[in-house]
Amino acid sequence: MEQVELQPLYDSYHRKIAKIDLRFKRYLYSQINWKARIISIKGARGVGKTTLLLQHILESYEDIDQTLYASLDNLWFATHSLMDLVDWAYRHGISRLYLDEVHRYEGWSQALKNIYDDYPDISIVYTSSSLLVLDNATVDMSRRQTPYTLYGLSFREYLELEGIFKTEVIPLDDILEHHVKKAMDIVASIKVAPLFEAYLSHGYYPFYRESLEDFPSRLRETVTVVIDSDLPAVENVTYETLQKAKKLLMIISEHVPFEPNMSALWRQLSTDNESGLKMLYALDKAQVLALLTAKTKNYKSLTKPDKIFLGNPNLMHALCPKVDKGNERETFFISQLRVLHDVHYPKQGDFFIDDRYLFEVGGKGKTFEQIADLPDSYLAVDDTEVGSGSRIPLWLFGFLY
């Protein structure tokens, strides 16, 4: 294969990287072991996986053509194979490839295994849909790669991206012990309330900066692409199932947080329990939904969720007929906590974190009545700049990552 055949890939690569800015990097960037042989970065559509790859190229190579980026949904792969690309790269001294959207390439896991086994001098960084579950792959890649998951912008990252305020991550233990001082340090520099409201409406997905006016419609389109395109690329599903998945999402959007009566829900969808749970858990993996269960979720043994949320508050503003403030608060809390912590459904209270901390989420008038006298219990309260004791400002949990 001659280099001229790769020109469409190079053209796409150069166009994309020309728009990349290094001034802001996502929280995951510094956590990745970029020296690993095969690196997997999963994440929801629109959270910035492609930008992450291209930033690393810009920062690592004086000449960007010492490596190659390619998205596997490019039409070039309709007439060429991934192994064609890898073989060409190997013969031309390129030792690292950056591959986007691998779940769109049929037989991706076998191809990556072959590269790992047959080209020991080639290393790969690739992105995929968060729907991808490696245990379900035809070929087990879990022993061969270093996996990471990218979530949407935290409130902390949103403030930094906007050029408003920059600070380090505040771990959960630090928030619980020192929240008064941490909050006072932050509110001395910024007016938190209006910025937090802006984040809840549009700050989770970086692409809001391209057109704030069009953001809700673009987010709805993104969710549609997840169901219509990403889901069939990962799971063997019928057109009828895709339509039911959309209907399921709209039913939940009208009632979030949704405490499901599964029999009634499946009747509305004309489906059975097994098929319905598969749809729910697929949307959870896609980060479109957040399923809250009393025990750790097991994607091999699907159980009824105790409560169902949309994946983040931006989705509420884009999909819900009316955004309920209480529901929005809880959706924000679970969207921030589930990135680094185990979040379960408790017998009392709203959320049980890491099998230790119990949280109630509410407005500034929220009391400890529901979780009184329980150990390690806290309130996450909205409309509050600085808390006291075990009353912690809700917005501060946006600084966890």
What is the average per-residue confidence, as pLDDT, rounded to a whole number?
A: 93
Rg from alpha-carbon coordinates: 22 Å
Structural category is alpha/beta
Q: Give the low-confidence spans.
A: none
Number of strands: 12
The largest sheet, given as strand count, sense and whether it forms a barrel, is: 5 strands, parallel
Termini Cα gap? 45 Å
Q: Encode the helix/strand succession as letters.
A: HEHEHEHEEHHHHHHHEEHHEEEEE
Helix content: 25-40%
Query: Beta-strand percentage?
Result: 5-15%
Describe the global form.
globular
Count of helical stretches: 13
Strand order of the largest sheet: 2-3-4-1-5
How many independent structural domains? 2
Sum this structure up briefly.
The protein is of the alpha/beta class and 401 residues long. It has 2 domains: 3-150, P-loop containing nucleotide triphosphate hydrolases (Rossmann fold, 3-Layer(aba) Sandwich); 157-399, no CATH class. It contains 13 helices and 12 strands.
Task: Explain the overall architecture.
The chain is of the alpha/beta class and 401 residues long. The protein folds into 2 domains: 3-150, P-loop containing nucleotide triphosphate hydrolases (Rossmann fold); 157-399, no CATH class. It has helices at 7-17, 49-60, 82-91, 108-118, 155-161, 172-187, 192-202, 215-234, 239-253, 262-269, 273-285, 313-319, 325-337; strands spanning 38-43, 68-71, 96-100, 123-129, 146-150, 289-292, 307-310, 343-344, 351-353, 357-362, 377-381, 391-393. The chain has a 5-stranded parallel beta sheet with strand order 2-3-4-1-5. Strands 8-9-10-11-12 form a 5-stranded mixed beta sheet, with helices on one face. The protein has a two-stranded antiparallel ribbon with strand order 6-7. The chain starts with 6 loop residues before the first helix and ends in an 8-residue tail after the last strand.
